[in-house]
Specification:
four-stranded mixed sheet, about 90 residues, Double Stranded RNA Binding Domain, 1 helix, two-stranded antiparallel sheet
Length: about 90
């Protein structure tokens, strides 16, 4: 059983920092997804891949994974690119 730990980023349609800053531990799927012959939806029998847990800090997520012997890798957070522009730029 392996998992990945990453930092939640803010939603695209969200103006404030909201739930960003939380750390998420998600289990990775070991079985490939397959298409359902009746509906065409992709899915699999691995229910562990649906599990997602949030933590307040990276250390808390690491402690949880170490306590339950879960192999994990950490995905570094993406760097935010601030694009500074003035309101007057809308009228140029």
């Amino acid at each position: 059983m392996s998992a990945r730990i990453f930092q939640m980023s803010k939603a695209v349609n969200q103006s404030g920092p909201g739930r960003s800053g939380k750390w998420v531990l998600e289990f990775e799927s070991h079985a490939p997804k397959r298409a359902d012959p009746l509906t065409g939806w992709s899915g699999g029998a691995d229910t562990q891949a649906q599990v997602s847990m949030t933590f307040d800090s990276l250390e808390a997520a690491k402690r949880y994974a170490d306590r339950y012997d879960i192999a994990y890798h950490i995905v570094p957070p993406a760097e935010r690119k601030m694009r500074i522009q003035a309101y007057a730029d809308n009228f140029r």
